[in-house]
Amino acid sequence: MAGPTPEAPRSPRPSKHVAPEGLYETAQHYVGDLVYGANDGVLTTFAVVAGVTGGALPATAVVVVGMANLVADGLSMGVGNDLGIRARESALERQGRPEEESQPARHGVATFLAFAAAGFVPLFPYLVPGAGDEFTPAACLAFTTLFGVGAARSLVTASRWWVSGLEMLGLGILVAIAAYATGAGVARLIQNGAG
Asked: Around Cβ 92, how many Cβ atoms within 10 Å?
């Protein structure tokens, strides 16, 4: 009795992925990950800063919660980006369509690094001994970083630098206001409930 017929070897999946060469092409290739990571890093970390400040908690709480946010949220975003790209590639493969991205892990790393670098900016004033009012410089640094990341995006896209910069800055201000108001509101509710 003959054994099972061996499966024919699968032909390699066609790929549309083009590996970037040089700094400019690499920046273009990863621009989405870098903007996504940097934007979220600054926004979520500054939201922590604003929320804790609005809640009238001590500066050490900003540093502890902010650093925890940098590590946990940054890793979460990096892993999420990697898994999202893998899922999309798997769906494309199921549809018989060519591969579009062969290195999802690199996109995850780019997202994490951008998140951590930009997210550290609003925490910096809280790590300077004897700084006094840390919130004002943290806000200035966060908003400057948001505008700068948005403006830098135009170096590798068709957007105008000032439009991209103002877009990110405007969204950042809205997030900061919401976080500060939430922190202040929750603190007021707790104080009124305890009183």
From this structure: 16
